[in-house]
Write a structure and sequence with these properties.
By secondary structure, the chain is an alpha/beta fold. It contains eleven helices and nine strands. The strands form two sheets. Strands 3-2-1-4-6-7-9 form a seven-stranded parallel sheet, sandwiched between helices. Strands 5-8 form a two-stranded parallel sheet. α1 crosses α9, α2 runs parallel beside α4 and α3 runs parallel beside α5.
């Protein structure tokens, strides 16, 4: 199979590139910054925020291979902090990379899959796309957008051979934590005294989370299925329980529980 993965320099992207390549598949991966290459993987310099670069990346794969069997939308970033102190520019950037980046790739990948009569689109969302997380509002918003887009796309593609799968990871130990941009405003601590302790709790959970290789193995198994599910929560038992609780509890009850957990 020919596999295209966005954002393969580290974390989930690199782990998935390693897994699919080791299983004998032809893997192409896009990246913005250089890193140690994964053996057997073809690297393409492309910024998910650039229409032209995304189009060129998809074209490079199709011209070389004639097809794309699996596209994994993985590229993303996070901006943390109280929404009140998040700039409008940060909001635009968060949505442009996490949501519009996905939209750009699918815009060019989907016609290829429809023309070839097969294909699987896998998008990495988050459990933060199923519940609004405090001090991660911009990130959650971008992932909620992914959930809604893919839900609509799945319905539109019903009856076609193109499958749409959403992956919803919990906390994983990747470079995402260290690279997260946080709101630097001096007024934050005064306005939101619980922010520092909440952020420390968030970072602790991430740094002690599951390994990206675990997710890569799960994703590899999912795309082998003839009829994969619509979405998969890949997380610790406690975080899976939180997703279930969100579905069955009254909104006020769940918000109270989430507030206690995140110390807000």
């Amino acid at each position: 199979m020919v596999v295209l993965i966005s954002g393969i320099t580290s974390g989930f992207g690199r782990a998935m590139a390693e897994k699919f390549s080791s299983e004998g598949h032809k893997v192409y991966g896009t990246h913005r910054r250089d890193s140690d290459p994964v053996p057997g993987v073809v690297y393409i310099k492309a910024d998910s925020a650039s229409d032209a670069e995304v189009e060129a990346a998809v074209k490079q794969v199709t011209e070389a291979e004639g097809r794309i069997d699996i596209f994994i939308n993985n590229a993303g970033m996070g901006i943390g902090g109280p929404l009140e102190f998040s700039s409008l520019e940060d909001a635009r950037k968060q949505m442009d990379i996490n949501w519009m980046g996905m939209v750009r790739y699918i815009h060019y990948v989907l016609p290829v899959m429809r023309a070839q009569g097969s294909g699987t689109i896998v998008t990495v969302s988050s459990i933060g796309g199923l519940m609004g997380l405090p001090y991660q509002g911009l990130y959650s918003a971008s992932k909620f957008a992914i959930e809604g887009y893919c839900e609509s796309l799945r319905l539109e593609l019903r009856g076609t051979p193109v499958k749409v799968v959403v992956i919803e990871p919990g906390d994983f130990a990747t470079g995402f934590t260290a690279s997260r941009k946080s709101v630097p405003a001096a007024e934050v601590a005064e306005a939101y005294p619980g922010y520092a302790s909440s952020l420390a709790s968030i970072e602790h959970d991430e740094n002690s989370g599951l390994k990206p290789e675990y997710l890569a193995g799960k994703v590899y198994g999912i795309v082998q299925k003839k009829k994969p599910g619509y979405s998969y929560v890949i997380a610790s038992p406690l975080q899976k329980l939180s997703v279930f609780a969100k579905r069955i509890l009254p909104a006020k009850w769940f918000a109270w529980i989430l507030g206690i957990y995140y110390k807000v």
